[in-house]
Amino acid sequence: MIKPWPTRFSNKPETSPLKRAAVSSFFYITICIFYILFSGQLAAKVAQTPEELKQIEVVKGIAFIIVTGILFFILSFAWWRRTRLQHELLLQSERKAIAAMCSASLAHDLNNLLMSLSGLVEGLKGRERNDSFLVNMRKLLEEGIENLARMARHMAASTKQLQTQETEKIALSSALPQIVELIRKHPNVRTCSLKITGDTNVPLTLHPRLLEQAVINLVVNAAQATGKRGKIELALKQEENVLFLEVHDNGPGIDAETAKAVFTSGFTTKTDGTGLGLLSVQAFASSCKAEITIGKSHLGGAVFRLAIPLPEAPSRGREKRTERIQEDKNPPRVTQ
């Protein structure tokens, strides 16, 4: 039984890291000032001599360091524990998405092979005559093909169950900040500049898990292309009946030949790559009938563009969307 995915998106706005840090710093500074003023007045009343006041101040300072050190340990432990949990969730999501896509591809190829073998077995039926050896071979082949077909059907059913999780009404302007908060902990992303531009509150019926995995893989690919100090931008744009989700980077870009092969199963430009990362992007695009294109980013690198049709989009809007997508003549480079 497949366990429910632990991550769920809500439409509540996410507090920015800068605002959180500013509020935390304000409270810390306020508490420290209050402590210094109050403890200083108390020490002055208690101390009888300057020497006693000096000793009280020393003890007071040491106690303050110990208490704040313990609090810092507790907070840092909680933060690192949360970071580790998010990293494990990220790896779990990546493994499941890759497993699902590999199973789907394997089941499809296996079915094609079985159809060819079935044709060969049919051809043997007319040549058996009285040859008992051929009769036995045909029966064994039929049994083997039936077993393989059963395995293929089971694999396809498991993949479909894994990929067709419950859909939700999601506004990308609310969901993206939560995904970005998760992906910032990735080793390749944490040192990059990552921001979200554009705003649209149009609710879409999407698979939260597929959306998360697609964005994660696109951002990680962009970070690997740009290096440790790269710039990555997630842009939301709405034109007529189409919502565009774009991932820009300032990497070196890709050539046209690489862009054509980037979504091919097993294709990779990395020595240790598997070529499966962008399959999750295809899975998400397929689930919401989106179109994927690669273009030249205004940051100087690549832009991966997902054109998601809005509900009840007229055919005219789809034709204009297709014309717009075909304008990208200079695709950049993908690192996968």
UniProtKB/TrEMBL annotation:
GO terms assigned for molecular function: ATP binding; phosphorelay sensor kinase activity
Top-level taxon of origin: Bacteria
Q: What class of enzyme is it?
A: transferase
Region: Disordered; residue ranges are 313-336
**Protein name as catalogued:** histidine kinase
Q: Which residues form the Histidine kinase domain?
A: 105-312
What reaction(s) does this enzyme catalyze?
Answer: ATP + protein L-histidine = ADP + protein N-phospho-L-histidine
Q: Where is the composition biased (Basic and acidic residues)?
A: 315-336
Does Transmembrane helix show up as a keyword for this record?
yes
**Family matches, as Pfam families:** HATPase_c
Which CDD domains is this protein grouped with? HisKA
Question: Which Gene3D superfamilies did the record assign?
Answer: Histidine kinase-like ATPase, C-terminal domain (3.30.565.10)
Q: Which InterPro entries match?
A: HATPase_C_sf (IPR036890), HATPase_dom (IPR003594), His_kinase_dom (IPR005467), HisK_dim/P_dom (IPR003661), Sig_transdc_His_kin-like_C (IPR004358)
- Looking at the UniProt entry, the stretches that span the membrane are 21-38, 58-80
PANTHER family, A to Z: PEROXIDE STRESS-ACTIVATED HISTIDINE KINASE MAK3, SENSOR HISTIDINE KINASE
**Keyword Cell membrane tagged:** no
Q: What is its EC number?
A: 2.7.13.3
Which organism is the protein's source?
Tichowtungia aerotolerans
Which keywords describe this protein according to UniProt? ATP-binding, Kinase, Membrane, Nucleotide-binding, Phosphoprotein, Transferase, Transmembrane, Transmembrane helix, Two-component regulatory system
